[in-house]
Amino acid sequence: MSNQLRNFVFFEETAFTLANIAQLFDYIWPITTALNYVRREGEALLAAQPDLSPKAVNDHFFKGRRVQGANMKGFLTRCSSEEQRRFLAKTVLFETISLYEGWLLTLIKRLEVALDWRHFQVPGRVERALADYHAAGGRSACIEACYYPLLAAKSEVAPHFLRARIGCFRAFKQVRNALAHNNGVIDDKQQSLLRNYQNVQAIDLFTAEELQKKNKTAPQFGTLTAKRQIKLDLHGVVGFTEILQKIMVTIDAEMARGAAAEPYLLERFRTNRHPRLGARRISVSWLNKASRRIGLPAPCQPQRLFSFLQQGGLIAADTVWVDPSPGDA
Length: 329
Description:
Mean pLDDT: 88
Radius of gyration: 25 Å
Largest sheet: 2 strands, antiparallel
Strand content: under 5%
Distance between the termini: 19 Å
Strand order of the largest sheet: 1-2
Helix content: 55-70%
Order of helices and strands: HHHHHHHHHHHHEEHHEHHE
Structural class: mainly alpha
Shape: elongated
Number of strands: 4
Low-confidence stretches: 1-6, 325-329
């Protein structure tokens, strides 16, 4: 599968949110590396000169820079490397869950459908929500013929894994809630949910194809202290974001199948109109270019898309469809 198809999602909101998640890691990994470097250098400095004042330590790192209010000696002596990783894990966890919830709200608003976004956070309810969505508005014959086969061919798109993957999301969201509202201490209900999630295995979350390519494990949030306080694990949270992205591309594909997505598709062609769509004769190559112009791949059935755009008023009724020829390939 080409990179274009591998990175292809149907809705712009999905592409935007996935790009924001990727950008988050563009910052998190350099920050992690930089902090590890600073810690090694600072610990070596204090090992050699343990009586250095906080100002002297600050001068070592910040001299000549406009940095105020920092206490590098306090950071090095009071914040362990483990606490540092937990803080970064918390940052990633909070940000990715916020991005997911914001994506759900904007996508449902885009489609103008009566769906409760909270159902996409609970195992069992998400499947019913998608079934209700398709039952209420029907499915799009055009999108199912032209784009859905390309979406469904991606290994990440796996509707039958949604229940377990949403279960993973729910577990990590409970961790986030405890951190946000109760200083990281979980209650009885949250503890029961997390215990149940710990029984989940990689085979419940990843397809056979994914498991063959790479050794996978179910992401774990970390550990609990005797007082039921959460100690986050950065690698576990990173694993969770991978599951979250799989949830998003699966929901993206399933929502694309609905007839409610057709006005959105027409609008994308309208606002990014290829000049050739106004021609008297349109061939498959030109329609493929028009599709790529709006960020979608070449359709599986170009003539079906031609009819759809013609019915939608974007191609004139008297425009002629030209069968593919060697010059159009």
